[in-house]
């Protein structure tokens, strides 16, 4: 319902075939995102750092494909988008790398390859394993979390700023991003990312929340 209503509201589209939805998280509540993309008929690219979560969703049949190669992900995205094939592709890697690759594609080809975007990392708990920084691999980040939580926190905040910078570039070109109620925008703001709404008070964000704007 969230993906369908985001398409209706932001893309003015009842049919999401050929549209691309990029997000992250395939763990607990976020695990349904891959299935949602296919039900809605769009191309869903979902990043997840934990291979166990990816394999679980694939085994369940909720996730159609898995890849740890961004070149392959972009090729599959372009093919499914062009041919209007419903696809759920799990990218085994950090979502920041995925967002920045989409910016690179925009800069080098002029193509905006994503229509809808969100995030379902556990950003209500970003410094205890709910969000993993792009600067480190999954296992390396887990080790740093246990040995130097202060450094881990700094890297998470740097990563959030990079993620928002990439999202902002794509949103400026027409992608529609929303907050999934996971405190992503709040933690990004605390990290110093550019998420405040222009001309509004500091409690308002430039991107909407799915609760009020989409489900409501």
TrEMBL record:
UniProt-listed InterPro entries: Urocanase-like (IPR023637), Urocanase_central_sf (IPR038364), Urocanase_Rossmann-like (IPR035085), Urocanase_sf (IPR036190)
Every Urocanase Rossmann-like domain range: 2-214
GO molecular function, one term: urocanate hydratase activity
GO biological process: L-histidine catabolic process
Domain of life: Eukaryota
A Pfam family it matches: Urocanase
PANTHER family: UROCANATE HYDRATASE
UniProt name for this protein: HUTU hydratase
Lineage: Eukaryota, Metazoa, Chordata, Craniata, Vertebrata
């Amino acid at each position: 319902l969230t993906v369908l209503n985001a398409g209706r509201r932001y893309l003015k589209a009842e049919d999401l075939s050929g549209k691309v939805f990029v997000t992250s998280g395939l763990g607990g509540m976020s695990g349904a995102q891959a299935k949602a993309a296919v039900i809605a008929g769009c191309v869903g690219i979902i990043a997840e750092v934990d291979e166990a979560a990816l394999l679980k969703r694939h085994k369940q049949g909720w996730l159609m494909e898995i890849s740890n190669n961004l070149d392959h992900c972009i090729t599959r995205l372009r093919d499914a988008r062009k041919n209007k094939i419903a696809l759920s592709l799990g990218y085994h890697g950090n979502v920041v790398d995925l967002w920045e690759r989409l910016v690179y594609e925009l800069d080098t080809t002029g193509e905006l390859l994503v229509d809808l975007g969100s995030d379902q990392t556990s950003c209500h708990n970003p410094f205890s394993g709910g969000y993993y920084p792009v600067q480190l691999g999954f296992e390396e980040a887990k080790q740093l979390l246990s040995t130097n939580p202060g450094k881990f926190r700094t890297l998470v905040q740097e990563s959030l700023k990079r993620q928002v910078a990439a999202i902002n570039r794509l949103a400026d070109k027409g992608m529609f991003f929303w907050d999934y109620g996971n405190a992503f925008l709040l933690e990004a703001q605390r990290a110093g990312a550019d998420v405040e709404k222009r001309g509004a008070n500091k409690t308002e964000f430039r991107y909407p929340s799915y609760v009020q704007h989409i489900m409501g």
